[in-house]
Amino acid sequence: MKMYVDSGKSNLDIYLLERLMPFIGKLTLDQIHDGTLATYIRDRKANGLAHKTINLGLELTRRILNLAARSWRDEDGKTWLETPPLITVLPLIGHQREPRPITWAEQRRIMPLLPDHLAKMALFDLNTGARDEVVCGLKWEWEIPIPELGISVFDIPRENVKGRKRGRVLVCNTVAQSIIEAQRGKHAEYVFPYRGHRIETMNNSAWQRARKRAGIPDLHIHDLRHTVGMRLREAGIREETISDILWHARQGMTAHYSVVQIDELVEALNRITNEGNRVNRSLAMIRREQLGEKSHPKVTIEIKMGQNISALTH
Prior knowledge:
single chain; hpI Integrase, Chain A; 2 domains; three-stranded antiparallel beta sheet; two-stranded antiparallel sheet; globular; disordered C terminus
């Protein structure tokens, strides 16, 4: 396992390994199989993790065991493991949670309840559609300013992209860019540090407390990404552009963007900085908003000194 980490793997892999180690860390490679992983699975389920999330750890374990059986060799040229075991992942059908995009009213409720650093990360997510691990691990060295557009893009290496097949470009709209500018000088490496260190996940205790107080206890960080997709559709943005913004694989997707193409993505994202461009509202969201107006809880909001609430809630 240490060899895998030392080979320069992503922070997500390291995070998953840290969760696995209490259950398999004292085992030899040939002792790791479905039976010895059963305790890990039970613990993850008991902590409320979805099958898809648990499978990330199982798939990483399978990948490491395959490397041990096929690539990694000792000083005699023998592989570390004779045969890789079949690691069974959990079924997804019937266990996948439906996406839960948030309404603008819900956004206005939860943002002031978040710590300032987490509110900025969430608002950045709601204006770029980036995944949790990308926001947490965003580095200044990836930034490419585009002076003629007045914004920056971030050239994300493939090692930090889900699937790791190719790098991706993260585009900032005006709101996301204002957050980037506010973060300059806070850390030499990471855009969104906390107390001088990288944040492992936005889904921490502060997030969980805030969503509960806001009356949306089932809200996941990944729902912010779903919200971006929904808002782009409501703004009348074509599906190809949405796919480019959210890094969904499609035929004909370019690997090298021009300034004109970046400008198209920026223009699309600028249409979701507020709710004034909802020309194509979804029926599901209309229904949610109608129910929310009748039933959402009253929330007492404590404003932190120096926190710009108008920027966080619109």
